Prior knowledge:
The protein is mainly α. It is 59% helix and 2% strand.
Amino acid sequence: MKARRNKKQVPSFRKLLKTSKVKLENKLKNKQFKQQSTLKKYRKEQRKLRQAVKDAVSKKPIPLEDPKEKRPGKRIEREEEEEEEALPLDMMDEDDLQLMKDLGQRASFLTRDLSSSDPVHAKKRKHEHIIEKYEKIPRTLQTAPEKELIQLLPIKDKSGIIPQTREKPVIDSNQDEEDQEEVELEEEVIEDPIRELTLEEHLIDRKKKLQEKKMHIAALASAILSDPESNIKKLKELRSMLMEQDPDVAVTVRKLVIVSLMELFKDITPSYKIRPLTEAEKSTKMRKETQKLREFEEGLVSQYKFYLENLEQMVKDWKQRKLKKSNVVSLKAYKGLAEVAVKSLCELLVALPHFNFHNNIIVLIVPLMNDVSKLVSEMCCEAVKKLFKQDKVGQASLGVIKVISGFVKGRNYEVRPEMLKTFLCLRIKEIEVKKDTEDINKPKKFMTFKEKRKTLSRMQRKWKKAEEKLERELREAEASESTEKKLKLHTETLNIVFVTYFRILKKAQRSPLLPAVLEGLAKFAHLINVEFFDDLLVVLHTLIESGDLSYQESLHCVQTAFHILSGQGDVLNIDPMKFYTHLYKTLFKLHAGATNEGVEIVLQCLDVMLTKRRKQVSQQRALAFIKRLCTLALHVLPNSSIGILATNRILMHTFPKTDLLLDSESQGSGVFLPELDEPEYCNAQNTALWELHALRRHYHPIVQRFAAHLMAGAPSEGSEALKPELSRRSAAELFETYSMAAMTFNPPVESSNSKRKDKVLQRDSFLDEDLNQLIKRHCNEVATHLPLDFTKYLESSPQ
């Protein structure tokens, strides 16, 4: 019970919570101040003690009674003075006199030290203080040391020789020792001077150091990989090498450590998120294996956090052009370190979307997508695209989309278009298809116990229970809950994407982000809510009519409009004739030069406008587009011609009556007006596809094949039918397949084997016989030199 009372009571957790943070900080500061003051006081006392001991050792102690006294005169005088000062016995009291007599009978009185106040028979203390011994020794005044004289050369005068002397300067012993040490150090420095290395020796030395560091990094990494749970502390040792101070190898070693740690974290990180332990979990007892696993997880999370902080600091130092005090790494080397750090962050963003601090990595990467450095910006954009493509659930994609949307709005839409182009890699289309099937087949609700009891018998309840258990297991196998979660996340993601797009369409119509916005709307248009269709089509038409857009941007507007109308927009009564007219009018802007890149968008637009909306397209419109596309195929690159002719083939199959363009004798009302921009009123039925005859003699064999196929009426069978590898591909796929972007000809040109002729033709065989005779006659004639007279020409010339 006593021990329990004396033991200090540990404050409870609630009491600690009540204590304010400021109070705890003040307590900590007071405690630290007391410790420092106590330490200072202790050091001061120790210093004084050492000084006292040093002074006592340096002085010669003088005993109280010296039997070998050389000066008896002084001793006699001292005794006489003591006798004079002593009191006579008749002046003392009787009690004092009796005490003196009693003491005189004791032998110890004669040998006792009178200056001591200890009892007579007191034992000597074992641990007596050092200073008390020297306090008994009487002090003597310091006498000035005798000055030594140095004999100099004498001076001879009239009176004689005058000796010359000089006092020797007194040097402090401590100062002398210090000077002597300095001289010795200087001598050592002089004896072993640092030899400057040549450039070759310096490179060899650096290579040796670098090899040692590499071996050390490899040893630590292999130890961690072999047993991560036991060697988790070696992560700290490896991470400490990020602060390498050797200027010769600092930059290289830091880069190697960054990459090594990144690969280690990718390998040893578990496939789940590690959460912090609660107080109850910390206090409970556990097995050794569980304790070891918890220590591993805590160590891994802490080291991962410190590693990300180091990478963030490297990027900040590069952005702020801040030079460290140690000056180990130059400002030029900061860029290389920052690029490696950004590369590692991008790898971790893609590889560990489920692990801790993933949102922190997103916050670091998104601003770097808009960085001035093209390399850094491309690395970050590619990493985000890769994350979008592989993210099946949608949790990580939602986090990135939120940060990008906020960043674009915060920068007032002045960002790189590549940031918004990353939205095109989102995996949302396939999830929306699953949404419809779930709406049709809603999950079956299980009966409650009361409902079963009312409606079912005991045997039926038993069978129903087994059936419900089986259905639950099947539902878990299908992961229907995961599908619902996916659908919810993708819906939220798509809402943020459309909000960003609509803001730019409303507030920043002349922004360079507009092409990326229109391209994104064209991809996700079938997922837009029907309520926005009317307003969106009006905005798109206004943009086209404004004339501020480039040709490719206007094509994106047309593509977006028809994607809207081909999906849920079928129920709307909207006539998109103005969009047909715009595309028909601008087709001739395509050519074999810069605008050849827009052919792919045109092929996609034609597929949506004519093929998928075949019921809403008139025959006159189809004839006009087929005629204009054949004319366009004459002045574009071969891959574009193949794509256009493939589109014409599909249109001729979709609209069978268009074969009248292959008959030159058929006539209708009116005259074909090729310069008219209205496809409905250009009278295309009165013309023929004469362009196919020119394309039949094209230098590209595939273009020749398509032209001959169309002239025969695009048959599916027979000698003029296309091969399966050409007929089964879409126009866009053929455009990509036969592209000349890689500066290669597809199909490859066959090398011609020229046969060497046995006979080499003579020079005369190349000439005509009459010409040969004329040459010989002129060569055989003797040249006659006549004087040149130009006067006759001058006289005959007109005056």
